[in-house]
Design a protein that fits this description.
By secondary structure, this protein is an alpha+beta fold. The chain has eleven helices and 17 strands. About 35% of the residues lie in helices and about 25% in strands. The protein is globular.
């Protein structure tokens, strides 16, 4: 471990979150950075917002779609640009695994060699981990990421979610929720335990706070059952009982519960009154075998049946709520399953990582509805990998 990394790690043990930006800037100077600014993505992943600190130069917020900083965020690459006659500006993605937090801007007196850039990458990687750790016990970063006020329902849902993206050499999962600042009943969850990747996508009936409360109970019951090592049908029974036992007869949630064996590609799922999963294989939409849906969670009559198929390496499994496919343009045209599959297929062909695909998809759905969602919309994309794909640049 180099001295800058060692000293930053030592300083982090008693570091207040408000001081992170300033502390990072001080330690980056040892690596030759004249200026260092951290930017975090907002909840919609549309804008990069600078993290202030004592001695940190002021910066403006930057759009992700049309800036060099946004390019580093979108493509997960280091972007080098001239910052004057005798200086260079490096934009580096802030990554926690495959989870994109934002970018770091470093102004340097000259271009860096490959070995020197590697040292800067390691430094920025440590900074990203410090952001994640500090976020667990502070509101500093959550406040920064808000470009407008979250509804109480949205606050509950964002706190309920796992990290938006997670990946290994065998599987990658990433999700998206809209409207980011006012989502109510849509949610998702996942967990990787050994060779089993579990997924849940849920759409609670209603809107606002009542829907968010129901989703919170459902996701918590899902985690409780999953951690008790129950199989898929029994997990569904547990969620159904939690909803039926604590809400009125008219309260329910549609959902897909899925379990993938990442060693074999065996996929099992239960469809509880929800849109059917899609599989995008190369340029094609592959529909899994029809799975007769059971009743929504909270309205079950007995244990639901599960269905099964096998993924092929490189497949992208798409789970979504009807707010995606039923998003309607001002002219009345639905977004639809085929448009959803075509978008994901084109993104894969273009080499877009799954997290960027989902980010762009949510923007596309919003644009289709002229920026006015009629319903919550959520999607989860799981990519089953061979273990030989290109590794992340950081």
């Amino acid at each position: 471990m180099t001295e800058p990394l060692r000293s930053l790690l030592h300083a982090s043990h008693l570091l207040a979150p408000d001081d992170l930006a300033a502390t990072v800037a001080v330690h980056a100077r040892v690596l030759g950075a004249r200026e260092t600014v951290l930017y975090l993505a907002d909840y919609e992943q549309a804008t990069l917002l600078p993290l202030p600190g004592a001695g940190v130069p002021e910066r403006r917020e930057l759009p992700i779609e049309s800036t060099l900083a946004g390019r580093a965020f979108r493509r997960l690459e280091v972007v080098d640009s001239a910052a004057g006659a005798k200086s260079h500006r490096l934009w580096m993605p802030l990554l926690d695994g495959v989870e994109r937090l934002g970018v770091a801007e470093l102004v340097l007196p000259q271009a860096r060699t490959g070995e020197e850039q590697d040292e800067l990458r390691a430094f920025v990687s440590l900074v990203a981990e410090l952001v994640v750790v500090s976020d667990a016990y502070s509101d500093v970063f959550s406040r920064l990421r808000r470009r407008k006020t979250l509804s109480l329902a949205a606050e509950m849902q964002w706190e309920l979610l796992p990290p938006i993206s997670f990946g290994t050499d065998r599987v990658l999962v990433t999700g998206g929720l809209e409207p980011a600042y006012d989502v109510g009943g849509d949610s998702f969850d996942y967990a990787l335990n050994g060779s089993l990747m579990d997924l849940l996508v849920i759409d609670s009936v209603g809107h606002g706070l009542p829907a968010a409360v129901l989703a919170s109970v459902a996701v918590s019951a899902y985690r409780h059952a999953r951690r008790n090592l129950l199989d898929l049908p029994d997990i569904a029974v547990e969620i159904d009982a939690a909803i039926a036992g604590h809400f009125g007869a008219s309260q329910f949630a549609t959902a897909v519960l899925a379990r993938l064996d990442i060693d074999t590609g065996r996929l099992r799922w239960i469809n509880a009154g929800h849109p059917e999963p899609l599989i995008v294989r190369g340029p094609s939409l592959v529909r899994p075998p029809h799975c007769p849906p059971s009743r929504p969670l909270g309205l079950h009559e007995g244990k639901p049946a599960w269905c099964e198929t096998r993924l092929e390496p490189g497949d992208r499994l798409v789970l979504y709520t009807d707010g995606i496919t039923e998003a309607r343009s001002p002219q009345g045209e639905f977004f639809g399953e085929q448009r959803l599959a075509d978008f994901i297929s084109a993104a894969a062909a273009a080499g877009d990582p799954a997290p960027e695909t989902v980010r762009r998809l949510m923007r596309h759905v919003l644009t289709h509805q002229a920026g006015q969602l009629q319903d919550d919309a959520s999607v989860v994309v799981l990519e089953w990998r061979t273990g030989t794909e290109r590794q992340l640049p950081l």
